[in-house]
Amino acid sequence: MSKITSFSIGNFRAFGPTQTFPIKPITLVYGQNSAGKSSILDAVLFASHLARNGSPSGGDETFLHTNFDFTVTGNRVRLGTPQDFFHGKDPSNPQGMLLGAEVSGENFTVRTEVGFTGFDGIDEFRLFEPPLKLLYQLGSKKNNSGKMIDRFDRPQIANLELQSEHPVVGESISDAFKLLRGKLEEFCAENPGTPATKIIKNRLLAKNFASDENKQVILQQLVAQFSSPGVSLAQFPPQAELSPFRHLESTEDERNTSAIRIFAPHPTTELRFKPTLLNYIEAEVNRVLVEFALQPLEVNRHSNERAVHDALTSVAYCGALRETLELNAMFPRSMMGWKAKKSWDDTRRSLGGWTLSKKSVRFLNKWLAEHKDREAWYKLSVNEVRRKDDWSPSGVHVRLFDMKRKLSVGLNEVGSGIGQLIPVLLTAAGYERSLVCIKQPELHLHPALQADVGDVFVRHAKKEGNSDGNSFLIETHSEHLLLRIMRRIRETRKGTAKEGLALKADDVAVLYVENKGGDSIVREMPLSEDGELVRDWPGGFFEEGLREVLF
Question: Where are the domains of the chain?
């Protein structure tokens, strides 16, 4: 499963020049009010929305006039039109807007960048591979008639341009020559004495088959073939069409067999057109070489695009103002996304920030029971409501039960801290291998509970010993949350960490966002192996308490 390990933003909301920041298992975003913290999470959410739903770029619904008011895992995001979220509210900025993501998996790392103009939507695309060198990008965009695209002519198809100097390209060509040489030798051994065998032995195998000159010829043809499929500009990342070469979708044995057969023309071809057999074979050799070299590049392209797409569409979100539910709140099956013969135990449901699944509700109730001495003791229940003589549920009741007073209550009847905390706990526990974006998890919470919420993120983060964990991108003002995380790093260093709460400094990124001259700047605040900040907060951030005591 791929995950986002860094993200880039340029000319989006508070950000002007492109900023790149890391995303660790736990990433905390701090800063003064209106510094640009929310812009970081909103950019990630916007990219996730485009990966899920596409981007308008022509016709009646243009990118410029689209109102991007959407939901991510049941939570509302309101960006407005490009005139609202382009930096400086200027969609005509010639530099455009940029979103970028570095995605890593078990044995790979890939980086993608997508550029936007206020008028056309996606108009630039670049993909980098280790050593994070540019591998391919959008080439000259033309419509079906060959005309260059301008502001008033916005087809959703462009072409990719392969960077011939990338090491991956050279390796694919070298491997193609080795593979084909073996197939040619095999063909000659199985078909002795034929005119095709004589030509192959004398004209190909007897010479420097893989000379630099031949490789350059294949390289030029390979670059041209790679860019021939059209690329849809409606997605992030842009989705290329499947290769027109059907044999690339076949099994390896099928490809090898077809490669051998092409060198055995029909007997009448050898008898009647013998003088042209050499040209025929040389042309077929070049064609197969290009296709052998293209095959790993095509697989590479599809896997890269899939990895980025999967990482972006696995983003979850819990907003700053969580929905509260009335007493005995009931949702119809249609709102819960029910399917026939499915119950709430089978599938996670998100509605207004309420990530309801068997796992998340079980964790929430366990956590509330453990904290009953610090807060009132509540228990959440989710129950199907069925019509009489009808097997299918007509809806679901979500109820909150006061365990001390033994009665049902609505979230509007409990403290606002608990009411705002419950959706955060449900979201943290309700996902696996996702990037979970949360705004202000400490809202209305007592400082002691703010620290305890830090343990929730530590327990559910993807780190050593928790392969199913999430990455958390958290916008917060809570010093207590950070102090608890720093404490867990110290305990891990000393070997005293409790089960499930081990955390290393490399698992955490602390970002500080500040506004300088109208542009937001992200500063990384590194932590030592002992869980201490390596440098002081800019501008005396978090020194308010000390000032109140000393002055």
Answer: 167-231+241-299
